[in-house]
Structures are given as structure tokens and as C-alpha cells.
């Protein structure tokens, strides 16, 4: 049984929206066996069965925070300012925050949730990441591996 899941959110045919999926692919073969790597969809409700029973979940997603393309953010759901809680910063209709809220209501939420997000540049159709976002993938993955190592992952 996996007690840690790393879930890459996004649509890999919409350019930078696929950064989460690309990061999960980059992590293949680099994480401990007890870590499950998941290529998530753009509809996070499909992920309930993945997070249920996990001790820790790490999400990777694209974000539009108005920053420089390729900027990397690390935060927990609790660190999001209350005044933005009602505004989704996800690129998706039923995103990470909606999944976490629903999982908490059903008492199926992991104790530890971390979100790594990369500022997108392009959401045009295409399977390639923009150069700035592509350059951010190894950085995000290194941060995740460091976090797993620090938690005796």
C-alpha cells in the first residue's frame, strides 16, 4: 500500500497545463517504492480513490498567478489567504481545492497536503511545454525529492 501519492494535474495537450503530468513522468524511477505516481486529470473529482488512505499527498499543477512563466510555488492549502479561498487559482473547474474540501467533508483527507505549482505561459493546444515551464520541471522535481527525503520518504 502506498502512503504517499504524487499527483500531477493537467491536460498534456494544452501546452503548459500539462506541467503536472510532465513532472510526474520526470519523477518515474526516482521516488521510493512506497510513493505512488499518478497522472491526474483536469477533473480532480476522479482522484478521490487515490488520496483516500494516504498519509501525504503532493500535487503538481500549473497556475496562473500573474508571475513570470516558470516561477515555482510551494504551499499547503492552509497557506492560501482566506480572501482568495473562494476564488480558484486552479486552471480547472473542479480543482485541487474542491477535491480537498470534499475529502475533508467525507473524512477521507490525508493529514499532509503540499502543492507545487508552476506559473504557466501558454495554454494553447500542443503537447510541448513553453521553454520557461519546461526548465521549471527539474526544479519542481528536485524540491519534491528533497521533501520526500526530509520526511524519510
End-to-end C-alpha gap: 14 Å
Strand content: 15-25%
CATH class: Alpha Beta
Low-pLDDT ranges: 82-92
Radius of gyration: 14 Å
List keywords for this structure.
5-stranded mixed sheet; 5 strands; 153 residues; alpha/beta; Rossmann fold; 4 helices
Protein described:
With 153 residues, the chain is α/β, with parallel strands linked by helices. It has one domain: Rossmann fold (3-Layer(aba) Sandwich). Helices cover 28% and strands 20% of the residues. It contains four helices and five strands, in the order E-H-E-H-E-E-H-E-H. Strands 2-1-3-5-4 form a five-stranded mixed β-sheet. Strand 1, helix 1 and strand 2 form a beta-alpha-beta unit. Helix 1 packs across helix 4. The radius of gyration is 14 Å and the shape is globular. The relative contact order is 0.26.
Q: Can you summarize this structure?
A:
This protein is of the alpha/beta class and 153 residues long.
Topology:
Elements: E1 4-8, H1 19-27, E2 35-39, H2 48-51, E3 56-63, E4 72-75, H3 96-105, E5 112-119, H4 131-150
Parallel strand pairs: 1-2, 1-3, 3-5
Antiparallel strand pairs: 4-5
